[in-house]
Design goal:
1 helix, signal, four-stranded mixed β-sheet, five-stranded mixed β-sheet, 11% helix, elongated, 129 residues
Length: 129
C-alpha cells in the first residue's frame, strides 16, 4: 500500500498558490483607499527614495511635502514606511515571505525645491505643472 502524506508545507504552498491564482485576491494599488500624510519641510533640496515603488513627483503651491500612498495588501507579511528626515523622503512598501501587495506613492513638492530621485536630479511632472 503506497500512501501519500500531506505535510504542512505542501498544504501551505497549495493554499498560497490557490489564493494567488484567484482573481479576487490579487493586490492592486489602484484598488486601495488613498492615505495622505504631510511632512514639514524648510529645505531647498528634497531627495526622494521610493525603493522601487512607482512614485509621481509633482510641483505644488505649498510649504510642506504632501505624500499620498495607495497600498493594497492581501497578506499579513507586508510592511510600509514613509518618513522625511534631513531632506530625504524615504518611502517603501515591501512584501516578505510569500505575500501579495501593491503600492504607489504621489508626492507634492513645494515649487522652487530642487528634487533628487535616489540622489540623481529629476524633473517634476504631473498634474501640478
Amino acid at each position: 500500500m503506497n500512501r501519500r502524506r500531506t505535510t504542512p508545507v505542501s498544504v501551505f504552498v497549495a493554499v498560497v498558490l490557490a489564493a494567488g491564482l484567484s482573481g479576487g485576491c490579487v493586490a492592486r494599488a489602484e484598488n486601495a483607499d488613498p492615505v495622505t500624510r504631510t511632512f514639514p519641510f524648510a529645505g531647498t533640496t528634497l531627495n526622494v527614495r521610493a525603493n522601487d515603488v512607482p512614485t509621481d513627483l509633482v510641483p505644488a503651491d505649498r510649504g510642506d511635502v504632501g505624500v499620498t500612498r495607495w497600498f493594497d495588501d492581501k497578506s499579513p507579511w507586508s510592511d510600509v514606511r514613509w518618513r522625511l528626515d534631513d531632506g530625504v523622503l524615504d518611502m517603501a512598501a515591501s512584501c516578505s515571505v510569500i505575500a501579495n501587495c501593491d503600492a504607489r506613492f504621489g508626492v507634492e513638492v513645494p515649487r522652487g525645491v530642487r528634487v533628487l530621485r535616489d540622489g540623481e536630479p529629476t524633473e517634476l511632472r504631473g498634474a501640478g505643472e
